[in-house]
Amino acid sequence: MSTPIHLGAITKSFNGKPALSGIDLDIAQGEMIALLGASGCGKTTLLRIIAGLEQPSSGQIHFGTRDVTDLSVQARRIGMVFQGYALFPNMTVRQNIGFPLKIAGESASAITARVNELLEMTGLGPRGDHHPNQLSGGQQQRTALARALAPRPDVLLLDEPLSALDAQVRDHLRDEIARIQKTVGTTTVLVTHDQAEAMAIADRVVIMHEGRVEQASRPEALYEMPASGYTASFIGTRNRFDVSPQGGELRIGGFFRQAAANSAAHQVWVRAEALRIVPAGQGLAVTVEAKLFQGPITRLYLTCHADGLSQTLKLDAPSEGLRGVEPGQSLHVTFDQESADVFAA
Ligand SMILES: Nc1ncnc2c1ncn2[C@@H]1O[C@H](COP(=O)(O)OP(=O)(O)OP(=O)(O)O)[C@@H](O)[C@H]1O
């Protein structure tokens, strides 16, 4: 009962100020996408437009062959989960989950069967007769998810569903949501500002920037092949080198690349884990400013004053290999040709 979503040329302005500037996006049946972007980029507005809580200034929304652009929230057959749990405090978990089915006039036996199915799927079985104030945040959010799924919606919309939970619960529920979404197969749009969450849970991540889609890609592709300097700056931890071409060539330490345009300055982006330490005389001379132990990975903050550069670099490497490295030490670092993403500015 899942359906593809088609968004065609969606725009939205508030008081003459554009919040969305032409969003074209197709979401496949059963796909989970994450809308990710900096505060104010328009992700919540887009989600609210898909839900019918907000009308677009122009553009169309289709769920499969249904044009839902002018339909009410109720007529769209969506399920929604918000950051705040929004459960009915005077109802038990069972009653909360069954509520939309009761409103739809389903029989008591059909409601019981569906509620039991969802209690099982969400691991809430033992909590069925509890009230929301007897539940943890994670359990409340599972209940909200079960209630959203109860009427078998065509589309599931999740608005920062994990952001009110603490880290450990969040990671667990994130994996649970991914599992449940794949089980029910409902086409899902998640809004988040947490890139790790987006990458872990979504089939595709849609990077939004100033009311536009900057890039929509599978998480691995987004990480390995950012299509723009903006995506590169947003995903992962990267170092940015601003390099002017000399004789049509870009050079940093041992790195060499033909410039895309002769006159323009270029951005060369290198992930923190792509920088590696090499013997003196190779690569860029740097000084270790700080060392941050993060369990299996350690991050070095390095200052670089070589090759006309003056900047701080971040290097992430397995902690084991950095045991002897201390702040104040001089090192040389380099990166492989293929690990650099180059954009003409
Ligand atoms: N009801 C409204 N009235 C006026 N302006 C609005 C309204 N809703 C959103 N905006 C503006 O539209 C732009 C996009 O907002 P939106 O909430 O969609 O961004 P967002 O990416 O979800 O941000 P955040 O991560 O901070 O929630 C912002 O400039 C915001 O101020």
TrEMBL record:
Keywords: ATP-binding, Cell membrane, Ion transport, Iron, Iron transport, Membrane, Nucleotide-binding, Transport
GO MF assignments: ATP binding
rRNA-binding keyword on record: no
The UniProt record lists the keyword Transport: yes
SMART domains to which the protein is assigned, alphabetical: AAA
Domain ABC transporter: 5-235
PANTHER family named in the record: SPERMIDINE/PUTRESCINE IMPORT ATP-BINDING PROTEIN POTA, SPERMIDINE_PUTRESCINE IMPORT ATP-BINDING PROTEIN POTA
Official protein name in the record: ABC transporter ATP-binding protein
